[in-house]
Design goal:
Helix content is 83%, strand content 0%. The protein has 4 helices and no strands.
Length: 147
């Protein structure tokens, strides 16, 4: 910033106050000019930024849709894996239940099943034997048919 001091005309005296006032006015003008330039530059930058965003919008939308499809595929894959793991755990639990019920506690559960008629017997003859001869005969026949 180059300060330009006012030149005195012939016969005119310049006092310190007047010199300071004129220097202040000049700095004020320069600041206003700089502010106008910055405002024009900001406006131009805003226009360029808006044009860039409008140009990029389709690409951003396509990237969003692609990401959405990937997320959906990942979610479905995770659901299938979780379902398979759940099914496997369920099958293991059923095997363990049958092992406990029919091996360790066969006498207890078998008698109850025979008395209520809930055992899986394949023939009427075995059912007759079961009810006529008691639990022990029916238990052997029915437990053999379950295996």
């Amino acid at each position: 910033m180059l300060l330009c001091f006012p030149q005195a005309k012939d016969g005119e005296k310049l006092d310190r106050k007047q010199l300071m006032q004129e220097a202040y006015q000049e700095r004020l003008k320069e600041a206003q000019e700089l502010e106008r330039k910055l405002a024009r530059l900001a406006k131009t930058m805003d226009h360029l930024e808006r044009a860039r965003r409008e140009e990029e919008a389709p690409y951003l939308e396509a990237a969003y849709q692609d990401r959405l499809a990937q997320d959906k595929a990942y979610h479905e894959e995770q659901q299938e894996q979780q379902l398979a793991a759940h099914r496997t755990a369920w099958e293991v639990d059923i095997v363990e239940k049958r092992r406990l019920v029919f091996n360790g506690n066969a006498a207890i559960y078998g008698c109850c099943m025979h008395l209520t008629g809930l055992a899986n017997c394949n023939s009427d003859e075995s059912a007759n034997k079961r009810f006529t001869s008691g639990c022990s005969a029916g238990l052997e026949l029915c437990c053999a048919s379950l295996s």
